[in-house]
């Protein structure tokens, strides 16, 4: 479903963040991207959703090359990719419900769009998602009243309401304590399974990856140095 072919990113500074990455992610597969800081994990995720322009290579989502898309195609295809961020990127002054609904507007909506009314079907789906992640009772709270774990659960709902094919998850637990981190990883991986969603989860914490995903891809200096089930990993590698 997602195929990276010789995907390369060299920043203007000369940093070769990705060196000809080849990777296939089948439909419904969840994988963790691990590796030390600076390995190229964020760059890879950002090249796939084109927050960063790849230097060369291809990134095919169901056969469509994301690297070649113009503005219109990109807007459409980004709706097929849900993003979950380390720092949640919620709109603080909006409610939980509004933040979830903003996912329907595509990639991080503008608050002004709330002057528009959402169809009841979107509102119903938002309630279902909030119920699934245990936040139904918080729907009318403002985002700035939430704990970190609650914020990330809102971030998950916002990504899922787009009904994406692929989830791109950038360090979802980096700002959370260990117990909340496990809850969030469990929730993300369970929801992917329930919905048959593929995901790439960029995560620092190898132990956390090992607990929840069937496939781990290790990056180092912009190259894939490991690709396999997590039990094949040895500590320190
Ligand atoms: P992480 O390693 O957690 O992904 P970083 O601390 O490396 O994040 O980067 C934070 C931000 O700074 C990102 O937006 C990244 O693109 C940018 N950045 C990282 N390294 C450089 C660099 N050498 N020059 C310019 N910007 C950078
Ligand atoms: P990771 O997410 O694994 O920590 P990054 O993708 O953030 O790795 O960074 C990979 C490499 O690219 C690092 O050498 C980093 O300094 C560099 N880099 C990241 N973002 C930028 C940027 N905006 N400009 C220049 N170099 C960057």
State the secondary-structure class: alpha/beta
User: Level of helix content?
Assistant: 25-40%
Oligomerization: single chain
- The percentage of residues in β strands lies in 15-25%
- Provide a count of the helices: 7
SSE string, helix = H, strand = E?
EEEHEEHEHHHEHEHEE
Strands of the widest sheet, in order across it, are 6-7-8-3-9-10
Mean pLDDT: 91
Outline type? globular
Instruction: Tell me the span between the first and last alpha carbons.
Output: 29 Å
For the CA atoms, what is the radius of gyration? 17 Å
What is the count of β-strands? 10
GO molecular function: ABC-type phosphonate transporter activity; ATP binding; ATP hydrolysis activity
InterPro entries: AAA+_ATPase, ABC_transporter-like_ATP-bd, ABC_transporter-like_CS, ABC_transpr_PhnC, MetN_ABC_transporter-like
Pfam family, one: ABC_tran
Domain ABC transporter: 2-237
Report on this structure:
The protein has 237 residues and is an alpha/beta fold. Helix content is 31%, strand content 24%. The chain has seven helices and ten strands. It has a six-stranded mixed beta sheet with strand order 6-7-8-3-9-10, with helices on both faces. A hairpin with a 2-residue loop joins strand 4 (56-61) and strand 5. Helix 3 packs parallel to helix 5 and helix 5 packs parallel to helix 6. 40% of the residues are buried. The mean pLDDT is 91.
């Amino acid at each position: 479903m997602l195929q990276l072919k010789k995907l390369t990113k060299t920043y203007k500074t000369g940093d070769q963040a990705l060196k000809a990455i080849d990777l296939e992610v089948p439909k419904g597969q969840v994988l963790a991207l691990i590796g030390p800081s600076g390995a190229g994990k964020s760059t890879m995720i950002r090249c796939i959703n084109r927050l960063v322009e790849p230097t060369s290579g291809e990134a095919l989502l169901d056969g469509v090359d994301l690297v070649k898309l113009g503005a219109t195609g990109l807007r459409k295809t980004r709706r097929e990719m849900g993003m979950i961020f380390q720092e949640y990127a919620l709109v603080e002054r909006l409610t939980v419900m509004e933040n979830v609904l903003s996912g329907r507007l595509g990639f991080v909506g503008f608050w002004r769009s709330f002057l528009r009314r959402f169809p009841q079907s979107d509102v119903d789906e938002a309630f279902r998602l909030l119920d699934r992640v245990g936040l139904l009772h918080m729907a009318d709270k403002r985002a700035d009243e939430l704990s970190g774990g609650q914020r990330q659960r809102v971030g998950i709902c916002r990504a899922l309401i787009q009904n994406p094919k692929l989830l791109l998850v950038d360090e979802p637990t980096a700002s959370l304590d260990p117990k909340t981190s496990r809850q969030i990883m469990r929730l993300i991986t369970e929801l992917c399974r329930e919905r048959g969603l593929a995901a790439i989860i960029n995560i620092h914490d190898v132990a956390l990856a090992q607990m929840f995903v069937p496939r781990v891809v290790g990056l180092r200096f912009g190259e894939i140095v490991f690709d396999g089930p997590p039990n094949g990993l040895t500590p320190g590698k």
